[in-house]
Amino acid sequence: MFRVSSSRVKILLVALPAALLLSAFILLHHTPSGGGSKILRIATTTSLDATGLLGVLKHEFEKRNPGVSVTWVALGTGQALEVARRGDADLVLTHDRPLEDEFIKQGYGVHGVSFACNEFVVVGPPEDPAGVSGARDVLEVFRRIFEAGERGEAVFVSRGDKSGTHLRELRIWSETGVDPRGRPWYMETGQGMAQTLMVADQLRGYTLVDSSTYTKFKERVGLRVLFRGDARLLNVYRAILVNPELFPWVNHQLAFEFTRFLVSLEGQRIVAEYEIGGVRPFQACFGKLGELGVHDPYEEEQVAYWLSKLREKT
């Protein structure tokens, strides 16, 4: 029977949230020493940071805008949006549409627009004790993991942090009609995607991970992609400006300029051509959600808005 020692996971679960919140406070309130610097504060999902894409975008934006300093804190989407709800960020980069829609509807965010996408994948040990690689869809994948877990043959490692990945995972469980929470084979780390991937590797377990983070760290783990391709696993990243009418102190102009850069031809080229080990982990998707099967009237309005702003600049 499969046995798991979860004491280390529990210790990390308790310790990490406080550390993340402290890091968010320090990073988003830090002022560079150089005189005349303009600071953009971003609350971002962890995958854009961990993969290195945001660092490349920062470098190019700062090169084009001397005197600007782009700073960020990497958190789960839920935490990133909470930081923005306090006015402690100028811009959010997140990937959970229901939470983002609520954030915008409540008036905290304006002019949200999609700029990149990838997919979620299910990874696990090559021996695949739950037999998920032969599943028809991701619902069957999760049912097989549940059944194998109940037999003591498998473990599932969840982020458990209200991130976009965690929320997607919970929606999939809900759609299957089973609830794994509280089961001895279901572990919650409370950590970012890279750390959760490492824990899953140590436990020889399954987890849901965005394809870009897996690409970045796949050589460090023994886990393999066992399922991908379900439309439910499309993962879209959106930039949302924090509403300056609610928080007059935010740097709305700089958030606007950075978002316009993200959706520009150059920004989209950087997203599309960014490579990790010869693999391009992201797809540029500004104005392309319809092609991906996502029909969102708000998105269509915002694409038109940003296209008009791009034309103004030229």
From TrEMBL:
Record-linked Gene3D superfamilies: Periplasmic binding protein-like II (3.40.190.10)
Xref: SUPFAM superfamilies: Periplasmic binding protein-like II (SSF53850)
Pfam families (UniProt xref): PBP_like_2 (PF12849)
PBP domain segment(s): 35-264
UniProt superkingdom: Archaea
Protein name: Tungsten ABC transporter substrate-binding protein
